[in-house]
Amino acid sequence: MEYLIGIDIGTSGTMVLLLAADGRIVDTGSQAYEFEMPQNGWTEQDPALWWDAVSSIIPELLTKNQIEADSVKGVGIAGQMHSLVMLDEDNQVLRKAILWNDQRTAKQVDEINQIVGAERHIGLTSNPPLTGFTSPKILWVRENEPEIYAKCKHILLPKDYIRFKLTGEYVSDVSDASGMGLLNVKERTWSQEILEDLEIDPALLPRLVESVDISGYVTEEAAKITGLAPGTPVVGGAGDNAAAAIGVGVIKDKTGFTTIGTSGVVFVHSSKPSTDEKGRVHTFCSAVPNEWHLMGVTLSAGSSLQWFRNRFCQEEQMIADERGVDVYQVMDEMAKEVRPGSDNLIFLPYLNGERTPHLDPNARGVFFGLSPIHGKPQLIRSILEGVSFSLNDCLSILRDLNVDAETMMLTGGGAASPLWREIIANIFDCTMNTCESNQGPSLGGAILAGVGSGVFKDLDEGCSKVVKIKSSFEPENQEHYSKYYQLYKDLYPALEDQYKKLSEV
Predict the structure, then answer these.
(1) Higher pLDDT, 12 or 9
(2) pLDDT of amino acid 299
(3) Per the residue annotation, which of 8, 213, 240, 276 is the catalytic one?
(4) Span 279-286, mean pLDDT?
């Protein structure tokens, strides 16, 4: 039997997945780690944590499952996007990686908009510059740590650092590079105009490949550490969401996925590089060669429900403990007894500000319409609906750009809720499916490795062998939500100025 390995370099841990050529997930292994917050709003992580995880998990998986090294035909790597890794001329890490959720670069984002021009930046890269992106991080280091910047010879993303450790190659793929703020996403090449404007030497950047292309081969040194065979091909891989799309079979027009994790993501595949001129959604290169995806993000999705659980559901936790079930199941059952619309209660899930479509760090959560008839069941259901409305804001922008999905895969922790799945299907007015596997990026990485190594003929074959639908829900009550969604959309403009005033009090 032939095998494939998928690696996901996450923010809170690394997962490695072992996939058989017949489509079976043989085993997975993971290793957790922390990130540091040296100042308020700053987040950093030592890249050694990622390599330590990879170099311990892979040999454990191979030994545990009695897999011979030469049976592994390919490796695919996915991971957190945007985070900045800098190496010196001896390939030593110069400083801890500045992570995707680091917020120190507001000044540099303003500088980029002034130097490049906000509209021109979107025209050149298909996206506005954001504090999370890599380019303002590069400028921050140059301005605040010039001695480190002067020593920098290579700039990599997290998964590409692991690629370097495996293969000795400085390579990135176009999907992950799309989130750096330096890529011409339509042309799938580094933007020479942006690099010239920002005075960034192109020699610092990695070579670009497509996600299924072989980017290098496992070296003798890496083979001794990982237990892989020397010469094992390592493919381009993908950024986490692009890889997750492969892992749930989203590889064609009219398909997409929605993730309800801490944040929420609406992702739709597109064979054309449509761009939102207002920069409200991302347009990135897809892991499917020469195709793209559009993506919107709502910041407080599952975290909204988690906040309510932690603050107000101690009684429900006790009931769940007595029944031996998850507290979210108890909350789901309570909310299911409430009619759509939560008895005229609307929740705005802006607990940590909002990203799509408002790009407003000052926005905050609201329960609108509270009255004496409302109790926990209505509050819980309104959170489920409010998060779904926020995700529908993302999808509505994509639809305005003629990028739509007739079927959606629902992933993340929220996919465990049958009620949430039903609500989203009705609000989106599209079929909502769930997968047998919820492994996401690591599974996508393994499928990409299968295509690049020739184990799978193409992505169609890989996904058809691996991706299995677990459940499906067809929309049936979408008309119940249309009036509530319109009210939801009207609330933010009415509160926008008040949010700003509140932040200044």
Answers:
(1) 9
(2) 87
(3) 240
(4) 95
Q: Give the list of residues 6+ apart from residue 36 with CB closer than 8 angstroms, or none.
A: 43, 44, 45, 96
Closest CA to 92 of 50, 142, 172, 151: 151
Q: Which tokens hold the place of 57? A: 């998990």
C-alpha distances in Å from residue 106, one per residue of 102, 112, 178, 361, 496: 10, 10, 20, 12, 20
The chain-wide mean pLDDT, for the chain, equals 96
Count CB neighbours of 174 within 10 A. 28
Please say whether the dihedral angle defined by the alpha carbons of residues 373, 392, 306 and 358, taken in this order, is positive or negative: negative
For residue 476, the model assigns a pLDDT of: 85
Residue with tokens 């009705």: 426
How many Å is the maximal CA-CA distance in the chain?
Answer: 70
Q: Does the pLDDT of residue 480 top 90, yes or no?
A: no
| pTM (predicted TM-score) | 0.92
In this prediction, residue 41 has a pLDDT band, given cuts at 50, 70 and 90, of confident
E strand or H helix at 383:
helix 376-400
* Close Cβ partners of 482 (under 8 Å, ≥ 6 residues apart): none
Q: Is 240 a catalytic residue?
A: yes
d(CA 383, CA 340): 12
Percent of the chain with pLDDT over 70: 100
User: Which parts of 177-291 are beta strand (E)?
Assistant: 183-184, 189-190, 207-209, 214-217, 233-235, 238-239, 254-260, 264-270, 282-285
CA-wise closest residue to 356 among 398, 414, 415: 398
